[in-house]
Amino acid sequence: MTFNQSKFFILFIGYLLVYFSIASADTTVQEDTVKATLVSTLPVFDGIGDDTCWQGIKWQTIDQVWIPYSGTVPEKDFTGRFKITWSGKENVLLILAEITDDVFVDGYAYNSNPSIGGGYPNYDILEIFIDENKSGGLHVFDGTGSTANQWGSNAENAFSYHIVVNGPKEGSAITKCIVCDIAGSSWSKYTIPNFAKHFPSFAMRKTGTRYTWEFSLAVYHDAYIDSNPEVSRVNLAAGKLMGFSMAYCDNDNPDENPKERDNFFGSVWVPEKAYNDHWMNADGFGKVMLMPGTSSVKQTTHLPHADFRIFPNPATSETQISLKNQFIGEIKIAVYDILGREVYKTSVLKSDSGLQMRLPLHNRPGGIYFCVARMQNLVLSQKIVLY
Question: Is this structure's pTM higher than 0.90?
Answer without folding.
Answer: no
